[in-house]
Write a structure and sequence with these properties.
The chain is mostly helical. It has one domain: MFS general substrate transporter like domains (Growth Hormone, Chain: A, Up-down Bundle). It contains 17 helices and 2 strands. Helix 2 runs antiparallel to helix 8, helix 6 runs antiparallel to helix 15 and helix 15 runs antiparallel to helix 16. The chain is globular and about 60 Å long. The two termini are about 45 Å apart.
C-alpha cells in the first residue's frame, strides 16, 4: 500500500473506534435524561427521599465494579490485545443495557440497578482498551486530536440522549426510552466488531509483508505469582504520573457527578412550573448544550495540545473553569454555566488523556490507563451518595454545587503539583508532540526527528523497527534503568 492509503487506514480505524463510545456514553447518561420520569413511574413504590438514593445508586452500581476492573482489564489489554478486549467489553455494555430495558418493562428497580453493574463491567474498561487501541495508531502524531475526536463522538451520544430520551419517554414512557438505549448500545457493539476486523486485517497484512507483528507473543508463560507481581508493581510509574491521576480524579469526578443531577437540577430550579414532559425537554436541552460544547471543543483543544503542548497548564485552566461553572450554576441561568463545564471537560480530557501515554512504557499503557479510570470510578461510586445526602438535607442541589466546586479546587492543586514536577523533569508534558524528548539514564537527550510517521503498514523491516522503537518510547524509564527517582 502507498503512504496515502496507510495514512487513511488509521483515520478509518479512528472513525469506527470513536463510535464505540457513542453507545457507551448514551447508555451511561440514560437515567439522567429521564430521572423525573423514572420517579413518576415508581412514585407509588418509593418516597421522594428513598428514590433520591435509589436513583444515585444507578450510577454508583455502574461505578462499583470499575473501582477494580479497569486496573485488571488494563493489564489484560496489555497481554491479549486491545481489539479482543474491546469486543468483550462492548458486549457487556449491550447486555447491561438490555437488562435495564427489561427492568423497566417488569417494573423492577432491583433489576435496573443490577443491569447497571453489568454495563459497568464493560463500560469504564472500554475507555482503557480504546485508549490503547487509538494510541497504537496515533502515539507519535496527532494523539490529542484523535482522543479529542473520540471524546467528541462519545459526548455526541450524551447529547443525543439528552435530546431524544425525554421526547421518547413523553410518548412511550421509560420503557421506550430505555429500549432506544438498548438499540444504540447494539449499534456500538456492531461498530466494535467492524473496527476489530479492520485492525486484525491490518495486522495480517503486516505479517504477510514482513513476518512481524506489533504484538508478539511472550516467549514464556508466567505463573500466577509472577502475573500478580507484574500487576501490582506500582514502582513502574513516576510521581508525575500519580499527580496526573489525582488531578484527573477530582476534575472528572466533579464534572460527571454534576452530569448525573444536571437535568433534574435545572428542571427543579428553572422549569418546575411547567408540565413534567415539557420541563424535562427544556432541562435536557441545556444539558445537551454542555455536551455540544465538548463535541466542538474536544477536537479543537486536541489540535491545540498537539501543536503547543502545555498539558499541565491546561489541566490547571480546566480546574479553574470548572469551579467557576459549578458555582455560577447556583446564581445564573444555566446557559453560561453548562458551557463553562463543557469547556472544562474538553480541556481536561485533551490535556490529561494523552499525558499518560507519554509517562509510561507502551507495554504498561493498559495498566496505567486502568489505574487512572479505576481511581475515577472510586469517585463516581462515593460522591453520588454525598450528593443525595446534601439534596435530602437542604432540599436543593445548590449545596451539592458548592461541594463539587471544591473538587475543582483540589484538582487545581494537583494540576499545579503536576506542573512543578513536570518542570523538574524536563517539561516533557509541556512540549509539542514533535518536540517530545526521551530520558536516557540520568539526563535529557534530544531525540532525532522521526521522518516517517508511525502506522502499522510499514514497507520495510527497518521502518518497522523505527516505529516499534517509537512505540516503546519511555520518557520516565524504570529506576533499574537509572532514571530519575
Amino acid at each position: 500500500m502507498n503512504s496515502v492509503t496507510n495514512e487513511n487506514s488509521r483515520w478509518i480505524i479512528l472513525a469506527f473506534a470513536a463510535f464505540t463510545m457513542f453507545g457507551n456514553y448514551y447508555c451511561f447518561d440514560l437515567p439522567a435524561a429521564m430521572k423525573d420520569s423514572i420517579h413518576s413511574y415508581f412514585e407509588l413504590q418509593f418516597s421522594k427521599e428513598t428514590y433520591e438514593y435509589l436513583y444515585n445508586t444507578l450510577f454508583t452500581a455502574y461505578s462499583l465494579p470499575n473501582i477494580f476492573l479497569p486496573f485488571i482489564n488494563g493489564y489484560l489489554v496489555d497481554k491479549i490485545g486491545s481489539g479482543t478486549m474491546l469486543v468483550a467489553l462492548s458486549f457487556a455494555v449491550f447486555i447491561g443495557q438490555a437488562l435495564f430495558w427489561f427492568g423497566t418493562v417488569t417494573g423492577s428497580m432491583s433489576l435496573m440497578i443490577f443491569s447497571r453493574v453489568v454495563a459497568g463491567i464493560g463500560g469504564e474498561s472500554l475507555f482503557v482498551a480504546l485508549s490503547n487501541f487509538i494510541t497504537k495508531y496515533f502515539r507519535t502524531k496527532e494523539l490529542s486530536l484523535a482522543l479529542g475526536l473520540t471524546l467528541a463522538i462519545g459526548n455526541l451520544g450524551s447529547m443525543m440522549n439528552m435530546i431524544i430520551t425525554p421526547r421518547v419517554c413523553g410518548t412511550y414512557g421509560i420503557r421506550g426510552g430505555s429500549g432506544v438505549g438498548a438499540l444504540v448500545s447494539l449499534f456500538s457493539f456492531v461498530v466494535v466488531l467492524v473496527s476489530n476486523y479492520i485492525d486484525k486485517h491490518i495486522a495480517a497484512m503486516n505479517q504477510m509483508g514482513r513476518g512481524l507483528s506489533l504484538h508478539r507473543p511472550a516467549s514464556n508463560t508466567k505463573g500466577f505469582r509472577e502475573v500478580l507481581t507484574d500487576l501490582l508493581n506500582f514502582k513502574e510509574f513516576s510521581s508525575l504520573y500519580w499527580s496526573i491521576c489525582a488531578c484527573s480524579f477530582f476534575l472528572f469526578t466533579g464534572i460527571l457527578s454534576f452530569n448525573n443531577i444536571a437535568a433534574s437540577y435545572i428542571l427543579n430550579k428553572w422549569f418546575s412550573a411547567l408540565p413534567l414532559q415539557t420541563a424535562e425537554i427544556q432541562a435536557s436541552n441545556y444539558v445537551s448544550l454542555m455536551w455540544l460544547t465538548t463535541v466542538i471543543g474536544g477536537p479543537l483543544v486536541g489540535c491545540l495540545v498537539d501543536e503547543y503542548g502545555v498539558r499541565t497548564r491546561l489541566a490547571m485552566i480546566a480546574a479553574v473553569i470548572l469551579g467557576v461553572g459549578q458555582l455560577s450554576m447556583i446564581v445564573f441561568y444555566p446557559t453560561i454555566p453548562v458551557v463553562l463545564i463543557g469547556v472544562a471537560y474538553s480541556i481536561g480530557y485533551a490535556a490529561i488523556g494523552p499525558s499518560v501515554a507519554y509517562l509510561t512504557d507502551a507495554e504498561d499503557l493498559g495498566r496505567a490507563n486502568g489505574i487512572l479510570y479505576s481511581l475515577q470510578n472510586l469517585g463516581f461510586f462515593i460522591v453520588p451518595y454525598f450528593v443525595a445526602t446534601l439534596k435530602n438535607s437542604y432540599g436543593t442541589y445548590d449545596s451539592s454545587q458548592v461541594f463539587l466546586a471544591a473538587f475543582a479546587g483540589v484538582a487545581l492543586y494537583f494540576g499545579y503539583k503536576s506542573y512543578m514536577e513536570n518542570t523538574q523533569k524536563g517539561h516533557v508534558l509541556e512540549l509539542r508532540i514533535d518536540q517530545l524528548q526521551d530520558v536516557r539514564g540520568a539526563g535529557m537527550v534530544e531525540l532525532k526527528e522521526v521522518q516517517a510517521d508511525y502506522n502499522p503498514l510499514m514497507d520495510s523491516d527497518q521502518e518497522y523497527e523505527d516505529a516499534k522503537r517509537m512505540l516503546d518510547f519511555n520518557f520516565y524509564p524504570r529506576k533499574s534503568k537509572g532514571a530519575f527517582s
